[in-house]
Design goal:
With about 375 residues, this protein is α/β, with parallel strands linked by helices. It contains twelve helices and six strands. Helix 7 packs across helix 10.
């Protein structure tokens, strides 16, 4: 037995001393591995290293964006609506010049001579509207000599004291008027340029109706709607670009924002211009109800052309909605006209004011 044990030990020593013998590694406990081995990367480390800084950066960017938006909020005249505005009045002057040059190029050859009797009559209406509300005067026409209205505004004294008219427009301000020979039923005002197409004149058979159209377009400028639209466009493009980059929606955000924000806001601005427009018209001693007459005629034209888009796809409210809104503002407009020392017929204006108020209460 002892000899057998001795022989096995000698064989084991020979094997261990052999250069071809492979040693078995010592057994390592799980506790040793858990204490000394390098663990695999955890999800928490990835979040801390990559995702968390991204979220922090996005949060900072959103916070700065909200502060920038709130800082540039302001109220519109008359209605007091809050809006985002980043276009300064100084920059508007540059936009006005470039817009005027663009309009001249676009309608070159179709602009009616300023000496035409029709243009002279329209200039007189525009002159009354501007001067009565202390919004400035028409600029001497660049295309020829035109006799300007010499009527003095009854707002001269307040202008001398405050330097501003009733709508806060900085003075002095010069406006341009262009009458375009075209069948297009339209009129618009962009910054300091008023454009009237001859195609809209058949829908404005009286001075009151034409004054209602032009007063509405002047109101867009008074409320700075063009600059507001440009400010909103800049903001929406920035937001849509960031959202599309993060979500990969490829322009979907831009389309949604147009339906949800731009089109409703455009309709709000139209009603806002209607309200300010009837005030401008009434202050110039025109009948503010002329605006409803034009809307009825345009509504009939729209029905005849079959343009009945859903309300949420329209840039303008429906004619019926606008007529109803304008009629609700007529008492206020007639009150302004009755208080005017230049309009005369105080009792007649008060009678119209009472009748309009009665219709409003009765409805």
């Amino acid at each position: 037995m002892l000899a057998q044990i001795s022989r096995s030990r000698s064989c084991r020593s020979l094997v261990s001393n052999s250069p071809f013998h492979i040693r078995r590694p010592p057994l390592i406990s799980r506790q040793y591995i858990s204490q000394h081995a390098t663990p695999p990367p955890r999800k928490q480390d990835y979040w801390t290293r990559y995702r968390k800084p991204q979220i922090r950066g996005i949060a900072i960017a959103v916070s700065l964006g909200v502060l920038f938006y709130v800082y540039n909020l302001e109220r519109t005249p008359i209605t007091g609506r809050w809006r985002f505005m980043v276009i300064s009045p100084e920059f508007e002057k540059k936009l006005a010049d470039s817009t005027y040059d663009q309009i001249l190029r676009q309608y070159q050859g179709s602009i009616v001579s300023p000496n035409h009797p029709l243009v002279v009559e329209i200039r007189q209406i525009v002159g009354r509207l501007l001067e009565a509300s202390a919004l400035g005067r028409l600029k001497d026409d660049e295309f020829g000599e035109v006799v300007m209205p010499t009527k003095t505004s009854w707002y001269d004294e307040p202008i001398a004291e405050t330097g501003k008219g009733p709508y806060g427009a900085p003075l002095p301000k010069e406006w341009r008027l262009l009458v375009v020979s075209s069948s297009e039923v339209n009129a618009f005002a962009s910054y300091d340029t008023i454009v009237v197409f001859t195609g809209i004149l058949p829908f404005c058979p009286t001075e009151d109706t034409l004054a209602g159209v032009i007063g509405h377009e002047i109101a867009h400028v008074v409320a700075r709607h063009s600059s507001e639209s440009l400010s909103s466009y800049i903001l929406l493009e920035l937001v849509a670009g960031v959202v599309d980059a993060l979500l990969g929606t490829l322009g979907l955000t831009r389309s949604v924002s147009q339906l949800v924000l731009e089109l409703p806001n455009s309709r709000v601005k139209e009603l806002e211009a209607d309200r300010i427009g009837v005030q401008i018209t009434a202050r110039a001693c025109f009948d503010p109800a002329g605006a409803t007459t034009v809307q009825r005629r345009l509504g009939e034209l729209e029905k005849g052309m079959g343009k009945q888009y859903p309300s949420f796809l329209r840039t303008h409210p429906r004619s019926g909605e606008r007529i109803q809104y304008i009629e609700s503002r007529l008492p206020e407009a007639y009150a302004i006209r009755a208080e005017s020392p230049t309009c005369g017929g105080m009792q007649a204006n008060l009678t119209r004011f009472e009748a309009a108020l009665q219709r409003l209460v009765g409805s």
